[in-house]
Design a protein that fits this description.
Helices cover 41% and strands 20% of the residues. The chain is an alpha/beta fold. The chain folds into two domains: 138 residues, 3-Layer(aba) Sandwich (Rossmann fold), CATH 3.40.50.620; 142 residues, Rossmann fold. A ten-stranded mixed beta sheet has the order 3-2-1-4-5-10-9-6-7-8, sandwiched between helices. Helix 4 packs across helix 5 and helix 8 runs parallel beside helix 9. The protein is elongated and about 65 Å long. The chain starts with 7 loop residues before the first strand and ends in an 18-residue tail after the last strand.
Length: 300
């Protein structure tokens, strides 16, 4: 089953405030778990001069690359000094989504932490809809970050579950994060109001939640659960996150969904667009033998 790892965290950086918020989250996590960071800036040739250096008209792209590399190194130096962790930097050119996914693979990164401007994304920087595209392509977990935290760290982690087969695969990651950061785990069963299938699933959900609690207990992780019927899963999830003062939501993506999927297109897209707290998106296992109806298939 999927389990989050923070040994090497990749952060796309466009030098905006939002991407620097992502850097802070990632640096704290790496320091706390003895990991390292990989800072990546992807150049968009068409927008380089307009966005990065509007007052300078340079034809030699290598000059701009050197400028960006130096700027990225300054951020890395500050992180090393402040957090005492290893940081490497890369400046690449090409399709933003493809480059981020490729760099994650090339550097053997285990997690991407990515700033996103969410529903307010109408600017020229690349951390808007590209964060969503990375979610559809990445084979490793992706955490999206919109705003700076009042206090870094995680105290209340929300895990929404639905009736889909792969929804429970994020439990390992949730217990790992709660264990590492000493957080309380909140399991929210989100079932569709008026759906006979989901109404019948309530008893099964209660059973699954009890089994999750037993897994959490083995790691001395405090865990509570709640079931809600709703017609809008994303709104209910975000409202519940606000109620419990969650500082992290752990959700599941579907790698084969792309933009046409109801699961990713509606639920995850709305979560990452509207959530002011980080959303950690975990891709599901593709091996059908690992997708079981019983939570007993989980090992921690």
């Amino acid at each position: 089953m999927n389990k989050i790892k923070t040994s090497k965290i990749l952060i796309p950086v466009d030098f905006s405030k939002t991407s620097l918020n992502a850097v802070k989250y990632a640096a704290f996590m790496a320091q706390f778990t003895k990991g390292e960071l990989v800072l990546v800036h992807v150049q968009n040739k068409n927008d380089l001069l307009d966005i990065i250096m509007p007052a300078v008209k340079l034809k030699d792209v290598s000059v701009i690359t050197s400028f960006l590399a130096e700027k990225l190194e300054k951020i890395a130096a500050d992180i090393k000094k402040r957090y005492g962790i290893k940081v490497s930097t890369y400046v690449t050119t090409g399709n933003i989504t493809s480059e981020i996914v490729s760099m994650a693979d090339e550097t053997k990164s285990t997690l991407v932490v990515m700033g996103t401007h969410g529903k307010d994304s109408e600017n020229g920087f690349f951390l808007g809809s590209n964060a969503y595209r990375v979610l559809t392509k990445s084979e490793i977990p992706v955490m999206t970050v919109q705003t700076a935290a009042d206090k870094l760290g995680f105290q209340n982690i929300l895990v929404p579950l639905d009736s889909s087969h792969h929804s429970r695969q994020k439990v390992d990651s949730a217990i790992f994060m709660a264990d590492k950061f000493g957080a309380h785990l909140h399991i929210l069963g989100v079932l569709h109001a008026g759906s006979k299938g989901d109404e019948n699933y309530k008893y099964k959900m209660e059973t699954i939640m009890g089994q999750i609690k037993k897994l959490a207990d083995k790691k001395n992780v405090s865990c509570t659960s709640n079931i809600q019927f709703t017609e809008n899963r994303s709104k209910t999830t975000l409202a519940y996150a606000k109620k419990i003062k969650a500082d992290l939501i752990i959700a599941m993506t579907d790698q084969e969904a792309e933009f046409s999927s109801i699961v990713l297109g509606n639920y995850i897209h709305q979560l990452t667009n509207h959530s002011k707290i980080p959303v950690l998106c975990v891709p599901p296992e593709v091996n059908p033998q690992l997708i079981s109806d019983a939570i007993g298939g989980l090992e921690y």
